Amino acid sequence: MFPSPPSTFWQLVTRLGEAQIALPVLIASMIWLMRRHGNLRLVTWWLCFVAGAALLTLATKVAFIGWGVGVAALDFTGVSGHTMFASVVYPLLACLLFTEWSTRQRRGAVWAGVAVALVVGISRVMVNAHSVSEVIAGLVVGGAASAAALAFARHPVASVPFWVPLGVALWLVITPVTAPVSETHGMVTRLSLALSGRTVPYTRSDMLRGVQAGAPKAHAAF
């Protein structure tokens, strides 16, 4: 983890991985695609892959916060949700927005989406929110879901009005500055405590301190 205070740049970049910012533009684009081409099957499968990645990420967080299930040796307490959402949303979004481009250009757009996700992942370390292992896990989970969605169903070649990518760009520029602070972590913590019956959540410090004190391996291995 980086001990120095995060810069404003990293604080803004990291917000691109928030579900409240990343998901609305993807869902809106999918709805537009469905209404324009009636491809409900494609949209349904894509949403299933996104939901699957989100549920897996949630499961790792609940397991740690509620029961202390983590990997101390890797400083791992759960998949980075911001990184996962960025990895699954932005490559898919690029594919949707630039569907008229040639195959090579679309591939480049998708890789640009992957690059955005990578930068969001770096920001999670820079703002002291996650360890490197948690960010890598987010990239793997989100990237796998995104790759599966892109490979599983062929998207139609559609004419995308100029205002669609323009609206997406404006959303991604404005919301990191203006959107209220996300309450996702608090909700996950409350869910974890309700399921486990604990009154206080397990923390990263508990995991690392437990290993140093010779705590049971259940708290040190995922």
Report what the structure shows.
This protein has helices at residues 8-14, 19-37, 40-67, 81-97, 103-126, 132-152, 163-178, 184-196, 204-212. The protein has one domain (12-213). It has 222 residues and is mainly α. 36% of the residues are buried. The chain is elongated and about 55 Å long. It contains nine helices and no strands.
Specify the biggest β-sheet.
none
Distance between the termini: 20 Å
Helix content bin: 55-70%
How many individual β-strands?
0
Class computed from helices, strands and strand pairing:
mainly alpha
Count of discrete alpha- or pi-helical segments spanning 4 or more residues: 9
How much of the polypeptide forms β-strand, as a percent range? Answer: under 5%
Shape by Cα distribution? elongated
Low-confidence stretches: 215-222
Q: Kindly report the average pLDDT value.
A: 86
Count of the domains: 1
Radius of gyration: 19 Å
How are helices and strands ordered from N to C?
HHHHHHHHH
Structure described in brief:
This protein has 222 residues and is an all-alpha fold. The protein is built from 9 helices and no strands. The protein has helices at residues 8-14, 19-37, 40-67, 81-97, 103-126, 132-152, 163-178, 184-196, 204-212.
